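Structure in, sequence out. Go:
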């Protein structure tokens, strides 16, 4: 799970809240991977994180929220990386580069464990679909920020949609592979190459 960076204007109270939220998320993820999603209770997470059940609910409303927190944090860092891109780079290449870079940080074992976790809960699967919609919108807004020409907006929207589609297809192909497992980043790179070849 990604460590969320501190905002520049963060005060002591905000820093402690951010660190507590991050600690809860990290503890919960370890427990989910060790004991299963359904086998991990909110009370057990709170106890392992050194907080009360009541305090837990100040940070997260459910176990699903903890998983989505990690996805949202990863997405926020991806967007931050994209916003640093030079407008001289082709938008599709820029999105490919930041997506492949982020997914390459995870080992095959980590990816497999997180994927199995996501597949273990119907509610998580449903919320993951909603997350993809939000990620597509965030990508589009970031692309518009870097490539500001109004006449490019329709193209940038299509790039955001196609990029999230490439990610989803790549993860599905990675999940369904047999034999020696190739890294998810390789599947994502291949998906973007197929996308570019079809344009």
């Amino acid at each position: 799970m990604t460590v969320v960076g501190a905002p520049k204007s963060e005060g002591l109270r905000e820093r402690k809240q951010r660190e507590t939220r991050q600690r809860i998320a990290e503890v919960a993820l370890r427990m989910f991977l060790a004991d299963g999603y359904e086998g991990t209770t909110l009370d057990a997470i709170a106890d392992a994180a050194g907080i009360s059940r009541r305090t837990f609910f100040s940070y997260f409303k459910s176990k699903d929220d903890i998983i989505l927190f990690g996805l949202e944090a990863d997405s926020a860092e991806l967007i931050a990386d994209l916003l640093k891109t030079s407008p001289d780079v082709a938008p599709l290449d820029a999105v490919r580069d930041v997506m492949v870079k982020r997914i390459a940080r995870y080992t095959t074992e980590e990816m497999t464990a997180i994927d199995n976790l996501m597949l273990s809960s119907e509610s998580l699967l449903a919320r993951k679909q909603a997350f993809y919609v939000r990620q597509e919108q965030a990508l589009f807004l970031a692309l518009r920020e870097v490539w500001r020409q109004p006449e490019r907006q329709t193209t940038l929207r299509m790039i955001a949609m196609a990029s999230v589609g490439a990610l989803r297809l790549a993860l599905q192909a990675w999940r369904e592979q047999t034999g020696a497992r190739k890294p998810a980043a390789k599947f994502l790179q291949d998906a973007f190459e197929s996308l570019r070849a079809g344009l």
